[in-house]
Amino acid sequence: MKSAYDWDIDFDAWSALAADDPLRFEQQRSDLIKEVMAFVPAQRQHRLECLQWRIDKIRETSPNPLAGCIKLSKLMYDAVLGADGLQDRLLTLTGGRPLPPAPLSKATVLNFRRPIVD
User: Fold this and answer.
1) The pLDDT of residue 4 is above 60
2) CA pair distance 3, 108, nearest whole angstrom
3) What digits encode the pLDDT tens for the residues 69-88?
4) How sure is the predictor about 46, in pLDDT bands with cuts at 50, 70 and 90?
5) Burial of 36 (0-12, 13-18, 19+ CB in 10 A)
6) How many Å apart are CA 57 and CA 116, to the nearest integer?
7) CB-side exposure of 101: number of CA atoms within 13 Å?
8) Residues 6+ positions from 8 with CB-CB distance below 8 Å
């Protein structure tokens, strides 16, 4: 029986498919996501479907793939290290206290004067 970890995804083949036939790539990507989600316990599937919807909307509304990647990276970072993220939850479970947010670093702003050109 297949488990959630048994997918052998060939990056080169998926990359070529995305370049050659983007519509087919998106359909196969969607099908694979649904197949993987079928292995998630039923009580968690709805939450994952909502998260996948959010990911898809971020990808669709981003001006380019890199911008989408940056937005998704921030989403993941916030989910782990942001306020009430995974790190805070784990500290709460272990009796620790959540870490205060890191202070923003300060920088010295240099005043560059334009050279006077006659």
Assistant:
1) no
2) 54
3) 999 999 999 998 888 888 88
4) very high
5) middle
6) 50
7) 8
8) none
Dist. CA 71–CA 51, nearest whole Å: 14
Cα distances (Å, whole numbers) of residue 109 to 95, 102, 106, 112:
42, 21, 9, 9
33 vs 27: CA distance, rounded Å? 10
CB atoms within 10 A of CB 81: 14
DSSP 3-state percent helix, strand, coil across the chain (nearest 5) = 60, 0, 40
The mean-pLDDT minimum among 29-38, 59-68, 78-87, 90-99 falls in: 90-99
**Three-class DSSP category at 1:** coil
Cα torsion 106, 110, 111, 116 to 10°: value is -160
Taking the model in full, what pTM does it have? 0.65
Tokens representing residue 60 in the block: 């669709």
Q: What whole-number distance in Å separates Cα of residue 44 and Cα of residue 38?
A: 10
CA atoms of 87 and 79, how far apart (whole Å): 9
